[in-house]
């Protein structure tokens, strides 16, 4: 009588879970962005995670080095949101809202670099090559900006390739 033992070698050795390095769980009542003194993003691979709900945008950083910057939009509320990145000389809280649309006039605000749209309860990311300067990040769905969804983002350093 033979009993054949099959040893099933399941090679899981190379399975790496690429878990996002920060879940950036926001603490209630702490709407202030953390200082960039510890764990400051490095040039070329900075990640700004933005926790969004009704009606806040809480960025992990408000200053990043020039070069590739990943905007990670995390929608923790009940509505869809978006993070529109605009190179602008204006302060984030001083943009013109068109009354007929309830949206910021992006052309008047500056040069739109890109945007990341995110559905409620999900996370989306986009990577942009940013030159030094002042930017505003807004949610430009109807009435979201005027409800408070914006912040200033400073891109520091010299122009990256
Ligand atoms: Cu929004």
What is the secondary structure topology, with strand pairs?
Elements lengths: L45 E8 L2 E4 L3 E3 L1 E9 L5 E7 L9 E2 L4 E2 L1 H4 L1 E8 L4 E8 L2 E6 L11 E7 L5
The structure holds copper (II) ion (CU).
Copper (II) ion binds next to loops.
How many β-strand runs? 11
Count of helical stretches: 1
Beta fraction: 35-45%
CATH superfamily of the domain at 46-156: Cupredoxins -  blue copper proteins
CATH topology of the domain at 46-156: Immunoglobulin-like
Structural class, please? mainly beta
Task: Indicate the CATH architecture of the domain at 46-156.
Answer: Sandwich
Structure in words:
The protein has 161 residues and is mainly beta. The chain has a domain of 111 residues: Sandwich (Immunoglobulin-like), CATH 2.60.40. It is built from 1 helix and 11 strands; from the N terminus they run βββββββαββββ. Strand 6 and strand 7 form a beta hairpin. The longest helix is centred in the C-terminal third of the chain and has 4 residues. The structure holds copper (II) ion. Copper (II) ion binds next to loops.
């Amino acid at each position: 009588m033979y009993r054949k033992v099959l040893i099933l070698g399941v090679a899981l050795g190379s399975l790496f879970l690429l878990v996002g390095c920060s879940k950036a769980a926001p603490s209630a009542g702490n709407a202030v962005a953390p200082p960039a003194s510890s764990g400051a993003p490095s040039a070329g691979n900075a990640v700004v995670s933005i926790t969004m709900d009704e009606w806040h945008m809480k960025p992990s950083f408000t200053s990043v080095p020039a070069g590739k910057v990943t905007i990670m939009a995390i929608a923790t509320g009940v509505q869809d949101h978006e993070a529109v990145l605009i190179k602008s000389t204006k302060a984030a809280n001083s943009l013109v809202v068109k009354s007929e649309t309830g949206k910021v006039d992006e052309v008047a605000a500056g040069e739109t670099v890109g945007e990341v749209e995110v559905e409620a309860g999900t996370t989306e990311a986009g990577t942009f090559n940013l030159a030094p300067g002042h930017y505003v990040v807004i949610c430009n769905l109807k009435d979201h900006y005027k409800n408070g969804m914006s912040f200033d983002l400073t891109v520091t350093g010299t122009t990256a390739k």
